[in-house]
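Minimal example, chain plus NAP.
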Amino acid sequence: MNNGMKTKNQIGPILVTGAAGQLGGVGRTVTGLLLDRGLPVRAMVRRDDDRATALRAAGAEVVVGVLLEPADVHRVVSGCRRVYFGMSVSAGYLEATVTMAAVAREVGVDALINMSQMTVSQMSIQNTTTSPQQRQHWLSEQALAWSGLPVVTMRPTVFLEGFFLPLTGPSVRDRSRIELPFGRGKTNPVATADVARVIAAVLADPAPHFGQVYELTGPQSQDMDGVAREYSDALKHEVTYAEIPAEDWERGLKKAGLPEHLTRHLLTMAELNRAGRYDRLADGVERLTGRSAMSVRDFVSLHANEFGGRRSERSPD
Ligand SMILES: NC(=O)c1ccc[n+]([C@@H]2O[C@H](COP(=O)([O-])OP(=O)(O)OC[C@H]3O[C@@H](n4cnc5c(N)ncnc54)[C@H](OP(=O)(O)O)[C@@H]3O)[C@@H](O)[C@H]2O)c1
């Protein structure tokens, strides 16, 4: 029988790691989408807190564990045939991936959906980046290929929820400005809501996707002035792009207490953006979900309150 045609009882619960996440986190959104499809979900969280309670209330089986602890990973994977693997950008990412691969081989997982990054598409032994996270994703993809597991790889570009909302929200709210060191480079951010829809579709019927790598972007690559125009249209007042020196941005990230691993990753992203390396367009979202990817304008419109709210008439500040 085709893997995709197995009954719910035969496949058991689908394991989603990193399921607590922030609002707009991939694991959390995937969990909701799978439950909406009537599929049983085992949601792995690091702490049994309010977010775990909310996942339980939504119908997920919640399991607590640490992805760097092999015994925890074995406990949560046992009984699952399909797994979404993803967690926060962090220094132990490669170790967690290899731990998951070792356990998945042992347990006999039928499908492993791996979260990666689109930058990996441009990386090789001779051409790497200074981001420790991107290097670990590049190595993780190779380790998973060597594992022989049935893997499907997701390579999204920069997230609207995970990057643009937290890192441009405050300055747009306070000063109607997007303040980033992104230069004249183009970017095409993708909504994690769309990334999660792709992942849920693949988890529901993984067999046709084994070995595939899906690149996921938004619908339009444009420079930051273009992005600012989309913010303006959504918020009904003028939002501008203000280029700031990378050193000032770095100081702000450090002041906010971001871990060194994440700070270095973000600084590399900005550098690559300035070099035009985020000028990307891929049709993965539309191809796998049948719906076009969300635009910056629609995303900002949806989250207008977090960007300071809409004004009734467009007027310069
Ligand atoms: N942000 C972007 O622009 C972007 C773009 C492309 C790809 N990606 C990739 O997307 C992934 C991040 O996805 P996301 O934004 O959905 O993640 P996220 O919401 O930041 O994190 C998901 C969860 O991982 C959990 N976690 C972290 N370390 C753990 C550990 N050792 N054991 C168990 N759980 C752990 C966290 O738990 P707690 O909440 O309890 O800490 C968090 O809830 C990364 O692979 C990143 O490289 C991100």
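Strands lie at 14-16, 41-45, 61-64, 82-85, 111-115, 151-156, 177-180, 213-216, 240-243. Residues 18, 20-22, 25-27, 46-47, 66-68, 86-90, 92, 96, 115, 117, 133, 156, 158-159, 162-163 surround NAP (CB under 6 Å).
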